[in-house]
Amino acid sequence: MTNRKFDLKSEELAKKTPHSAGVNAMNAYEKDHTAGIDFQLLDGNCHFLRHGHMLHMEFKLEDKHNVIRLMYSTHTVVVQGYRLKPIYETITKDQISAIIEIEERYANMIEETEPCVVGIKVITR
To answer: Model-level pTM?
Structure first.
């Protein structure tokens, strides 16, 4: 048997911490009172949009995903995933600092009671 010299993606996700130290990478969002939301995409890009610039937000059940649409004065953000209602409710209270996207194929690693974000699209208006 050979010694493996690489980590499986599931092991990388378990070790990885996003921008804030000590936060499990499998969390779909981070709670905190901040001026806005940091949308963290799979490709490493991040978009920070202030709560005060949000014009409208909606939560919908579409096909197999939940969808949260956030309309800002300059952008529209579409968040797709599973069990997203807690994220929606946290946004309504301005108690969210980040929403973190993971690959959909790893969604089954998330506990069935926890939100899971598998898509974030940031569209300039």
So the answer is: 0.78
